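This week, think about what follows.
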Amino acid sequence: MSSHYDVTLQKWIRAIAGAGRILLKEHRGCFASLLKAVSSLLQVAVAFTSRSPRKVLSYDAEVKMTPLTLLCPLSISSSSPSRSYLPSKPLVQNPSFCFSCSSLQSEQVTAGVTGTRSEYKPGVFDDLFLSLFRNKMVKEVGWDSDKPGYDGLIEVANRLMSSGRTNSDTRDTAVRILRSLFPQFLLDLYKLFISPLGGGKVAALMIARVTALTCQWLMGICTVNSVDLPDGTSCESGVFVERCKYLEESKCVGICVNTCKLPTQTFFKDYMGVPLLMEPNFTDYSCQFKFGVLPPQPEDDITLKEPCLEVCPMASRRQQVARSTDVGQWPKA
């Protein structure tokens, strides 16, 4: 069985790397970087699923975090059996970012834990990611803000929330935006071949690391952590957002729930085959992602019962709309 996994995964590593080279020419490296990141993480899956002999990743030298890091697939070598399928030695080390197969940590996060909250420092590709995401959102909404950068993105998100006749319309639009960020064939292949591996744990591990690696421009500082799974085990498939920038800037529970939490949960479950539960905290603006965990039914989800934030700019708008729509579809916020 392990041999079958190895052969299959190695094929997809080569296929994704080839697709990355093509997309590198057409999309200025955005999709290429993401695909190469997945290519590297697939090799983690090889180590995870190998049984006899067990394989682990070979780290002969520490790699400095540069824009080319994601374009260099990791090498795999056989070694003697170890206690864990996943290596614990960091893959990437630099003063602001550390990536390993067991955790994704940041000195900035450590500082936040000790009482000094640090701001996330924008990376090389952050402007490109923001521009891509905003353009997809503008295309769906049919309107753009005059403000540049993140402030403009938040105004477009506000328009997305206010333009939908119901929350369901807003969530469906947000799901379409997320789908448009990825080639459909990549989503289909991931759901078909990667999601079933290891009872779903391999896919959850991979997505947690890619999320923490590529989404800090949107959410702020985040780190991979361990979460409890429904089968009673725990897995490093969680992502903890220290203070979500999207929630903090929008100041709106409705925007958080209907343009982020619920659509994101739907996207990963329906289009990538990975269950996801997101637990935003509207007191300190933190958020816990739990990949591999199914969300509760809407009537049991306490997030949908949260009161509106006092600073919410959408409060009066929601109160007016609620009078003429099904109040049950709106969170209390």
